[in-house]
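chain below, 170 aa
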Amino acid sequence: MARLIGVTGEFKDREYPLEEGEITIGRKTDNAILLDTPTVSSHHCVLTLAGTSCTLQDLDSTNGTRLNGRSVKGEPAELHHKDVLQLGDIEFIVDAPELASAPVARYTDADAEIATDAMAAPQDFNTISPFGAPPRERKGIWYFLLIVVGILTLLALGVFGVMLAGAGPA
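prediction:
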């Protein structure tokens, strides 16, 4: 039986069976698959399973639907065994041997395995945000500006002191 297997976040290792017909996915309780997380829209997408064929249609979701790293907008996309489906920031593996197509060269044909033990990000990861890494801090520039402003302030106080001393009692 076809199913989606969560591979990220709080949905890791959760399995969602896919049955014949339309399967709606979203944050609202009227969806067949409920994903209660802020990056998933109320009615995010719909899967249509018919025999050995399954299509994916984005329902104008806010954070988008991606299939194997490519955005799914407008036209329905065909799902295959071992495809990677991303809804917002949640990823799923499509486990559906019955959806295996004719041998077509796709990078998703690799044997995907789901890790069962804890994994750590490499030490040089700053973020795994879909918005990219935060901008680098430029502390050196700020320290330089602070020193320059300090020196100018001291010079201004010195000049002001000299002027006061020169305008002393007559």
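Residues 123 and 133 are 14 Å apart (CA to CA). The two ends are 102 Å apart (CA to CA).
thats it, cya
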